Amino acid sequence: MLQIDQLKKSFDGYQAIANANLSVPPGEVVAVIGPNGAGKSTLFNLITGHLTADSGSIRFQDTDITKCTPYQICHCGIGRSFQLINIFSSLTVLENIQTAVLARHRLERKLFKPAKRLLREETLEVLASFGLVRFKDQLCSSLSYGDQKVLEIAIALGSKPKLLLLDEPTAGMSPDETQKIVHLIKRLSQDEGLTILLTEHDTDLVFDVAQKIMVLHQGQTIAQGLPEDIRNDKSVQNAYLGETGVC
Ligand SMILES: Nc1ncnc2c1ncn2[C@@H]1O[C@H](COP(=O)(O)OP(=O)(O)OP(=O)(O)O)[C@@H](O)[C@H]1O
């Protein structure tokens, strides 16, 4: 579904992505892991068009998206939730979801008065599937951190993406909130067949949910494969030595 080849990106001479290769098969949960500064967020920003690669290619469903804008990439079918929660805090929960649903129907310009009536049923369905109906008239700023994250993922799914990118979805969460996100990832993958690409520092979570893992180290793909192979890979163990000792 997503194919990345020989990707490179430098910042003022520093190669943040030196040579990244990744293949994401349809229907799978794929995790990108690596020590701090390995280039995970940079890779995500390249995939979603928030950064432009110096060289290499990114193909999504046989379309070359390497030089596309974030708007074009979103309309191609790639949705994203960010490391820092990215919602409209001063809008209600319902209005946030409605914004995403309107955008999918290319009705963004009708965002204000008439929008209240537009696509309300579809918006309520999205809210229901994420257990957010009871919060629908609350301002987003009043939700707990965990519920704000669920809302952000629901917004990303409002555009009905085929591939969902989750950038450290459990960062800063309590164990209970983390479990809620784990269940959500499994439900979206197993019940709805969504393809998911995530980065995450919590390697227990990664080994729990991912069918495939890519390991980035200093901007290079040093390993890619099944979780059990990654766990036993010597280059991965070396990359993590002195870091978390997780593998
Ligand atoms: N806009 C930028 N300008 C300059 N350097 C950058 C920029 N973005 C990232 N970098 C550098 O590129 C490298 C990779 O950063 P990146 O944020 O992609 O790593 P990461 O694997 O996501 O790290 P973390 O796990 O800590 O979030 C780092 O050395 C970072 O300082």
Automatic annotation (TrEMBL):
Keyword Ribonucleoprotein attached: no
Gene Ontology CC annotations of this record: plasma membrane
SUPFAM superfamilies from the UniProt entry: P-loop containing nucleoside triphosphate hydrolases
Protein name as it appears in the record: Amino acid/amide ABC transporter ATP-binding protein 1, HAAT family
InterPro entries: AAA+_ATPase, ABC_AA/LPS_Transport, ABC_transporter-like_ATP-bd, ABC_transporter-like_CS, BCA_ABC_TP_C, P-loop_NTPase
Organism annotation: Desulfosporosinus acidiphilus (strain DSM 22704 / JCM 16185 / SJ4)
Claim: Transport is one of the keywords in the record: yes
Alphabetical keyword list: ATP-binding, Nucleotide-binding, Transport
Domain of life: Bacteria
UniProt-recorded Gene Ontology molecular function terms: ATP binding; ATP hydrolysis activity
Residue ranges of every copy of the ABC transporter domain listed in the record: 2-243
PANTHER family to which the protein is assigned, alphabetical: CONSERVED COMPONENT OF ABC TRANSPORTER FOR NATURAL AMINO ACIDS, CONSERVED COMPONENT OF ABC TRANSPORTER FOR NATURAL AMINO ACIDS-RELATED
